[in-house]
Amino acid sequence: MSSKDFSVFEPRRRQPWGVLALVMLSGLAMMRNGVDVELGPPQPAAAAAPDTRPIGVPPVVTPGLQPLPFAPASRVKIPSIRVAAPIMDVGLDANGWIAAPPPEDPNLAGWYQNGIAPGQRGTAIIVGHVDNQTGPAVFYGLGSLGKGQHIEVERFDGRVAVFEIYGVEVYSKNNFPGVQVYGDTGEPELRVITCGGGYSRGRGYDGNVVVYARMVGSR
């Protein structure tokens, strides 16, 4: 983790989705580190595709749900694919891309710290590698997730934000729907992203797997 003092949580200014989309699209293009797995990571099923909500239709809201205040993320758990990983803060690298976690640690995720904290109103972003030089990494199984499964994000204020998946999709890096992925729905949401789609040794993965989830509770 970074060395910042987590004893005081100050709200972060939200970044325009367009800037974030460009950053994420560029940064995640660099997340393939190059190990050949015979069948590759699982890819999202057609039945897991997120439902399209027409413009102007209010988002689904859990009755009584209260967004959480800002607090950095510390750990992510996805029980259905046995993920229990620490989270480090990530920002931008020297090229202006989002910095992925160090590939040497396969069980490490990154939270984009200049955006929304998990549980805050808005869309929080967590990224991680699908594999590294030695084999599968933290989000190798992301494409196998389905609707209704849960993701828990622990925070440095001791709270846990619980999210329910409502869609899993793989998008080409050349046609990435930034508005849909990073847009603010008006409710606390989460996107978990890794590489996916086709793979070639020369170009790496040609897409990103995106998990859509909305907050359904906290503790």
How does the overall form come out from the CA principal axes? globular
Can you count the helices?
A: 2
Helix content: under 10%
Mean pLDDT, to the nearest integer, reads: 80
Along the chain, the helix and strand elements come as HEEEEEEEEHEE
SS class: mainly beta
Number of strands: 10
Q: Please give the oligomerization state of what you see.
A: single chain
Low-confidence stretches: 1-37
Calculate the terminal CA-CA distance, rounded to whole Å: 23 Å
Strand order of the largest sheet: 1-2-3-4-9-10-8-7
* Rg of Cα set: 16 Å
Kindly estimate the percentage of residues that lie in beta strands according to DSSP.
25-35%
Provide an overview of this structure.
By secondary structure, the protein is mainly β. It is 8% helix and 35% strand. The chain is built from two helices and ten strands. The chain has helices at residues 17-28, 178-182; strands at 73-78, 83-90, 109-112, 122-128, 131-132, 135-136, 150-155, 160-172, 188-200, 204-218. It is globular. Residues 1-37 have low confidence and may be disordered.
How are the secondary structure elements laid out?
Layout: H1 17-28, E1 73-78, E2 83-90, E3 109-112, E4 122-128, E5 131-132, E6 135-136, E7 150-155, E8 160-172, H2 178-182, E9 188-200, E10 204-218
Parallel strand pairs: 2-3, 4-9
Antiparallel strand pairs: 1-2, 1-7, 3-4, 5-6, 7-8, 8-10, 9-10
